[in-house]
Amino acid sequence: MKKTQNSKGAKRGGDPSKYRWVLQVFTMAIALSAALSLASESMLEGAGVAVAVLILAVFIFLGIVFDVVGVAVTAADPRPFHSMAAHKEKGAKEALMLLRNASRVSSVCNDVVGDICGIVSGTTGAVIVARLQGALNVQTVLLSVAVTALVSGLTIGGKALGKTFAIEKSTKVVYWAGRFLHLFHR
């Protein structure tokens, strides 16, 4: 059966840009996951419990920060950024770009980066459990359950707090995200 075109020229049966976006996110997730896992593994190799806990804190923090940006981009009003861009404020154009692509930015920040940080945090938590079991010379499920519960609590609690902040201060969050991106657009 031959596909027909509507008045705008798009073929019935699906928008190819949707599939392209899915492929891009899939590829980005694989690349970012590999990079963060490799970085985590190399930093954890031979590291003590204290360094592993610090690495865990960094990944939890990254997950929360990206979640905040993802929520803020979907909640922010673009009007202040149009004014800032007209006055040539640094980061305003980048903030508008984030807002124009809010669904994609939210998907990347919340789903891709957030989920990857969660997975790497879980792996780092498992490394911490193994190191603690070796250091304490104990093999107990309670230690694993305690670390898993703590990592989950910190991640979920941090994201819940971050979402509230992101909604209440969405303009500031998007502004600072735009300023950060501006550093790379010079």
Give descriptors for this structure.
186 residues; mainly alpha; elongated
Word description of this protein:
By secondary structure, the chain is mostly helical. Helix content is 80%, strand content 0%. It has seven helices and no strands. It has helices at 16-44, 49-75, 79-86, 92-100, 102-136, 141-168, 170-182. The protein is elongated and about 65 Å long. The relative contact order is 0.15.
Describe the global form. elongated
What is the terminal separation in angstroms? 51 Å
Q: What structural class do helix, strand and pairing data support?
A: mainly alpha
Radius of gyration: 21 Å
**Low-confidence parts lasting 5 or more residues at pLDDT below 50?**
1-10
Specify the number of helices.
7
Mean pLDDT: 88
Order of helices and strands: HHHHHHH
Number of strands: 0
Kindly summarize this structure in a few lines:
This protein is an all-alpha fold and 186 residues long. It has helices spanning 16-44, 49-75, 79-86, 92-100, 102-136, 141-168, 170-182.
